[in-house]
Amino acid sequence: MPESSGMKNRSPRFPFIPLEEAVDILRKLAAFQSDPEKPLRRPEMLKALDYASFHGAAVKTIGALRAYDLLVKQDDGVVISDTGHKILAAKSHDDRREHLQRAALSPLMFRMLWRRARHCTQAELATLLQERDFTEQGAVRASKIYRKNDEFAALHSIEVEPDLPERGRRKAGPDPAKKRANRAAKKRAQQAKRDRPLINPNSLSMPLSTGRAVVPTGITEDEFNTLMQTLRAWKGQLVKSA
Predict the structure, then answer these.
(1) CA 111, chain centre distance (Å)
(2) Which of 10, 85, 111, 117 has the most beta carbons within 10 angstroms of its beta carbon?
(3) Residue that finishes a domain, picked among 156, 189, 212
């Protein structure tokens, strides 16, 4: 669910809670559910999570579980998703890591951070998010949640992005021409930002057809040799076939 600061300033959507907390809540819902095939409706969810009414924290919590693809909407309720069932059924954290990583990257905002800024510090992530229309409060909260998810699901260990649907995009409003113009202007602004050096000044950036490759400066000779050997080893995954 989105974070807001007052009525005028509002950040783009991101999960309200970290993934680890969302998985704990999922376990409570699963334990409360007598029939896994039957959707959980609002009264049942409120009782399972000990909420008084379905607004505020309750809405944000269920929204976060849906954003992580742990719950999916069905009829007038929700059911545990395939990813959610696999996480709950895993015998160890190592067994569930792959499914946790899919859940952690399901929110489009967190997927963007993993794609473009996963090696940045939390402060750099917050700065990047503020450049993408987040409020200061929202940027700090979202960057903290992303970092917690990184530690919990080991996002830094992923070499190839999981195949996930590009879902959650907003529908066009009542004025399509204005929407298209706004999107074009935003795209030009984003392109200008991409053409600028990245947040970290102690790095070199090389433009590629799919983005930019960033390498920190000041590395040792051994680190440089390791980097080159790793790139050669990854050639099959990095280079597309003709």
Answers:
(1) 4
(2) 117
(3) 156
